[in-house]
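quick one before i forget lol
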Amino acid sequence: MPVRIEKKERVATVILSRPEARNAVDPDHAEALYEAFLNFDRDDAVDVAVFCGEGEAFCAGADLKSLAKRGIATAENRATHKSLEFSGFGMPLPRGPMGPTRLKLGKPVIAAIEGPAVAGGLELALWADCRVMAESAYIGVYNRRWGVPLTDGGTVRLPRLVGEGRALELIMTGRKVEAEECLRIGLCEKVVANGQARAAAEQMARQIAQFPQSSLRADRRSVYLQYGLPEGAALEREWYNCTGTFNAEGAAGVARFAAGAGRHGDFGHTAAG
């Protein structure tokens, strides 16, 4: 199986399994990743996904040998790709060449990165909400040397995370960026010992999954919805985004607090019910 899903409690771990090619993505693997994350988003039994690669690499990017055989997507063959509803050009936007990178999921995804996350693999990592990296892991726009552009959100998400100037430097030089630098500049949220990225990401996922999910997802959604808006418009969007969430979930949480739960930063027994 090119992609498999392992579930434990409320966490689904999506594993890109092509270690012989450093988890490089060809069209079949892109399709499998796309379907795996759609299925995760629809699955009421899980709340958070961890995304990792099999073996010693997260993802080495697109399979360039496959790309050389089939050629770059053209207007004529884009119709074979699944199209998504958002597009600023008045036409459907095709599915991301790496798979899920143009999906807007309603639940969090945490990337667990061992080894390289380069070229399109970097773009897959940027698509996740958070990134946990092993000490020897690294990222880089390695497609720079082959004349292949970023087409899975790299030029959009990278500057939003690290700022325009730094993003341009990384994109134009294509240099290797090791885990400690990624942590320092905001490209990842945690660095752990080699071999521990998946376990650390799953621990983070379990922590997230323990909370009442409606309000958590509303806050997550609000962060994405407000981006680029003036402060007043962003505050308005935040307010209407959360409308109904308090009645659905918050009132019960306030009642639990009033009854003595969760005092002094105790996060135990915080879930609804």
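fyi Confidence is low (pLDDT under 50) at residues 74-81.
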